[in-house]
Amino acid sequence: MKLLLNLVRKDFKRNRVITAVLAVFLILSAFLMAGGLRVAGTMMSAVDGLNESAVPPDYIQMHKGTYDAAGVADFVKSHDDIKDSQTVKMLDIRNADIIYRGETLEKSLMDNGFVVQNAGFDYLLDLDNEIAVVPAGEIGVPVFYAQALGIKAGDVITLREGDYSKELTVATIIRDASMNSALASSKRFLISPSDLNEISRYMGEWEYSFEFLLKDGALTSALEKDSRDAGMPSNGVGITGSVLTLMNTLSYGLVAFIIIAISLLLIIISVLCLSYIIRATLSEEHAAIGAMKAIGFPLKAIGQLYQIKYLILVLTAAVIGYLLAIPFGDFFCASIIMYCGDGSSEWMKWGLPLIGVMLLSLLVVLGCHRIIRRSLRSTVVELLRGEEKITKEGHYSLPVSGLKHRNLTIALGELKCKWKENVVLFLVFVFSSFLILLPMNMKSTVENPSFMTYMGVGQSDIRIDIQYTDNLIAQKNDIVSYLEKDPEIAKLAIYKNGYVQSQNGLGENSYIRVESGDESVFPLEYLEGSAPVDSSEMALSDLNAAELGKVVRNYHIRDQITE
């Protein structure tokens, strides 16, 4: 073993540049793989820990306006699959009435509601993931605003409507498993019951949230259908727990996805470079390998002689990459920890990156072993004479009529003879280019104004959503009248949201949310088919079409969906 290590050390000194470049690729691969998996592990652990402490609902139905409390109670009693339920009162306050450091929250696109702590589930947590308790005169601020505006404990939030003004001291920053994500359009502030009663006399509008916890195996789709069939209050959106989890995961998982994708590209490049370097090294040492085989060296020992170099290189890169990933992962995990906490499982933060690095190292070592074993199959005579190299490279004949394009002819001949080596180089350049272009393209895609069309929303500069109120038609008419008189508005369209009932591929009834209006004003691009042109047609998202088992035939929805 000492002899092998000495030979490896001398080889490293002789090929310093190649070894250094290869080591950089391997370290970067291990570093990004461990870092990406650390972010992913922290995200999964943190989201699980938040949900475990906050106990988010499985289904939420928002509602504005009056409702029959007895009817809601009867609905809950008639469903054995409901484990627990509660009605949450939320006081919606206009952003213009919420003031921090002399400025209102009008620039924020969030809808802000003020609530008291829940008693059964869906708890608002402090930064220790404990159930937050806020005394009178104080307030708990969502972590979203703590990061966006720099709000911290001890600051003052002012509520002002006309002559009424109320100052509340920030007691804690709260985490909200239901509305935590930046993708959620609503945020909840936590105040005391006495403050909520006082503030509601001067400002705000009540909104109700009917929340349900289901027993194991119960379907939220069935509960949603039953609630609509029973005429439950539904002047608002309905959200399932899976959607809430998806929003949280998407918010934090995009960074992990990008890092892991870049890591996989670097792994491919590293393996290709290793393949090229090993082939070139063994090609130069055919005579030495032939001599060792001639004097009786076992093939296994010769393979170990060349493989131990790459084994040492891979293991060293794995250790360095894993250690570098710790501060790197902590940096990218800071936002996740701020929003969700430290998590409930330490092994996911440390064990998952370690497993990823070990699998990466095993993959590279096995690749080296395979390449070396294939290169040592030649006989002693072939190796000593160099015939194996000639046979593999082949030859090409020059044209009898002479060389009209000398450089091009010789270059094409060399490519033909050494096509394997050149394919490796070509793939290295391809994946390197992709590695550079991937983050740039993702950034440009997200920042492109047309990105919103992927969510089924036509490309526009401003979208105004009117909340569910008793005077909805009057509000709509006032807004349209104002916008039509604005000379800076080139075009506008009005869309109406509602629910329709449909049957999926299994014959089960369910409700889906639809939007209707003039689609030609802000058109969408369709994967298949075209925009609906009359009341007998409709367009479905790809996810809804797959879930409902609907297909497009002759540019019409084949299965009829009735309202």
Which structural traits does this protein have?
563 residues, alpha+beta, 3 domains, six-stranded mixed β-sheet, 51% helix, disordered C terminus
Category by helix and strand content: alpha+beta
Query: If helices are DSSP runs of H or I spanning 4 or more residues, what is the number of helices?
Result: 16
Largest sheet: 6 strands, mixed
Overall shape: elongated
Tell me the count of domains.
3
Model regions low in confidence, pLDDT < 50 over at least 5 residues: 555-563
Structural Rg: 32 Å
Strand content: 15-25%
Describe the 3D structure.
The chain is of the alpha+beta class and 563 residues long. It has three domains: 2-51 and 248-393, no CATH class; 82-214, no CATH class; 472-557, no CATH class. The protein contains 16 helices and 16 strands. The strands form four sheets. A six-stranded mixed beta sheet has the order 10-5-2-11-1-12. Strands 3, 4, 6, 7, 8 and 9 form a six-stranded mixed beta sheet that branches. The longest helix is centred in the middle third of the chain and has 44 residues, at 241-284. The N and C termini lie far apart (78 Å). The chain crosses the membrane at residues 252-278, 310-338, 350-368, 423-442.
